[in-house]
Amino acid sequence: MEKIINTLSLELGIKKLQVENTVRLIDEGNTIPFIARYRKEVTGNLDDETLRNFYDRLNYLKNLETRKLEVIKSIEEQGKLTEELKNKIEEANILTEVEDLYMPYKKKKRTRATIAKEKGLEDLANYILKQKENDLNTYALKFVDKEKGVETIEEAILGACDIIAEDISENAYYRKNIRRMSFMSRKICLYCDKS
C-alpha cells in the first residue's frame, strides 16, 4: 500500500498525509461526494474533481497490484518464474505491461502453433528465424512426415510460420513497441487529416 500512496502523492501533487487520510476514508466506505462535502478537513480541502481522479487512480493501482500478485503466483506455480521476470512484473506501471509479460505463461487454447509444435516443426521455425542462405525447401523436406500430419513442404513451412507468429505475438518487448508505433502512426494520421 505504501507504493500506491507514494504514487498517488506524486501523480496528483498532494501531500502523503492527504493521500493516507483519503485512502482511509474511501476504504471505510465513504463516497466521493460525502468526502468532498463533509470531510474537507481530513483530506486537506481536496476538491471534487481531484477526489474523483484520486478514486479512479486508487482503484486502478489496487487492481494493478492484485493482478501482479496473481500473475507472479501463476508463473511461480508453473516453475517458470525467474528473478528477472518477477522484477519486470513488479516494476510494471500499467496492466497492459503485466499482461504482456504474462502472455507466454497463460494457459492457452489449442492454436495452430501448438498443433505445429506437436508435429515437431519447432526446429524448422528456428531455422527460418536464423535466415540462413541455405535452401529452405531442402531443409523443410526433413519435416514432411505423413504420420505426424505434415503432407507437404508447404505445410511444414506454414506450420513453422505459425510458431514464429505466435512467439512474436507473445513477446512483451515486441508487443510494447508495436503498440507504440501504432499509436504514433495514428497520431500522424490524425495530424495529416487536420492539415
Q: What can you tell me about this protein's structure?
A:
The chain has 195 residues and is mostly helical. 73% of the residues lie in helices and 0% in strands. The protein is built from twelve helices and no strands. Helix 3 packs across helix 5. The chain is elongated.
Highlighted features:
195 residues, mainly alpha, 0% strand, elongated
Q: What's the SSE blueprint?
A:
Layout: H1 2-12, H2 16-27, H3 32-38, H4 40-43, H5 48-77, H6 83-91, H7 95-102, H8 112-118, H9 122-130, H10 136-141, H11 153-169, H12 172-194
Helix pairs in contact: 1-2, 3-5, 5-7, 6-7, 7-12, 8-11, 9-11
Biggest β-sheet: count, sense, barrel?
none
Which radius of gyration do the C-alpha atoms yield? Answer: 25 Å
Shape: elongated
Task: Indicate the percent of residues in helices.
Answer: over 70%
Span of the ends, CA to CA: 47 Å
Strand content: under 5%
- Please provide the ordered H/E string of secondary-structure elements: HHHHHHHHHHHH
| Alpha plus pi helix count | 12
Number of strands: 0
